[in-house]
Amino acid sequence: MKLTSFLSRGLFRPSAQLGGSLLAAAMLVTTPFAASAEDGSPAKKSRPAGGVEFEIPQSPEMMLLPIGYIRETLDHPRPASRLDIDPKDIGIAGAIMGVEENNRGGRFTGHLYKLAVETASSPEKALAALEKLHESGHNYIIVDASAPTLLKLSDWAKDKDVLLFNVRATDVSLRQEDCRANIMHIVPDRFMLTDALAQYLVAMGWKDWLVVHGSMPADLAYLEAVKRAAGRTGANIVDTREYEDVSGGRRDDVGVIPQGKQDGDGKAVVTSPVYDVIVVADESQVFGPLLPYRGGGEPRIIAGTTGLTATTWSVGHEKWGATQANNNFQKDFGRLTLPVDHQAWIAARTIGEAVTRKPENDFDTVSAFVHGPDLQLAPFKGIK
Predict the structure, then answer these.
(1) C-beta atoms surrounding 228 within 10 Å
(2) CA 159 → CA 67, 163, 182, 186, 335, distances in Å?
(3) DSSP letter (8 states) at residue 260
(4) Among 108, 191, 305, 372, which is 20 to 30 Å from 81 by CA?
């Protein structure tokens, strides 16, 4: 394609197809050329006096690269308040932002990314959604689901050209006895999260912990991770108390710290152990969000799944371009960025970065690159 350019007042209009050097030299306007003369000879080109011709390559032919997203929507306990209810587009919004960023570079490399979202209310429906996505050509699937559902999807996808990206399940077993080669874990597991929290607490000198945990399986799993982290870092758990969520109970009682151990007469022990921090294990946010205000214990720092938390993303993060990332997300989606949003964004951007480095989009090549040591991504955290 040839474009005729000339400098003229009033014709300075930027062109998205030109590099900075061409744009600095001249702005372009297109002039039609006849395909051929009536006698079959090549048509003469019409060029304004003093014009300069530039040869620029045509836009590359676009290769469609679909990305799937499976979100499992199971019933969960009612959180302490509506402030803790997940938005309807949680995770999906982050994936959309990642796909949009992929396309900004993809228009130059010839890749067009599209996101297909499927929701499922059971593991069986999630599996049906995966089959549907695979049949329609989706090789890369972002999964926002529980560990059992994720493993069911992984087992079905074995020996198929499918790579799953886990953005939700924090179960430690997924990186241990249930490890799968076709699952890339974006979200950290509970051991990683509690190790990070414990290291910070001990570094600050808060070594004596009162642990309050819920009764859900996820809460008990987080409790075990807290105990492990305390043992690894030299912290001391002075007491462990279980918060029992009574269905239909008064909402005013939510978040009150349970009493300590009792003596033989069933009376609460008068003396309470001294502690520096209250560590909460309440992944469903049933009581934890209100514990700092209704706890009734000593005025201490709250940490764990409430208060001071170890997480992959915070709206208070401001370094390395994070402020701009948070502002852009809020502008596009009208809310703050949540950790699952950031994890889904990383998954989408990982796919885009791998395909950019391996533009032929051969699945085995791209998958090997994602698994290998050469993948680099800048997730606004200062380390690629």
Answers:
(1) 16
(2) 19, 11, 9, 22, 40
(3) -
(4) 191
Quick: pLDDT tens for 162-185: 999 999 999 999 999 999 999 999
Q: Which residues are CB-contacts of 45 (< 8 A; sequence separation ≥ 6)?
A: 2, 4, 33
Paired tokens of 115: 């996101």
Alpha carbon distances (Å) from 227 to 22, 78, 280: 62, 27, 12
Tell how strand 208-213 and strand 236-242 pair up.
parallel
Angle of CA points 149, 155, 158, to nearest 5°: 140
Q: Which pTM does this prediction carry?
A: 0.79
What radius of gyration, in Å, describes the C-alpha atoms of the chain?
28
pLDDT in tens, 25-84: 333 333 333 344 444 444 555 555 656 666 655 666 788 999 999 999 987 777 767 777
Q: Which domains does the chain have, with CATH numbers?
A: 1-58 (no CATH), 63-187+313-371 (3.40.50.2300), 191-304 (3.40.50.2300)
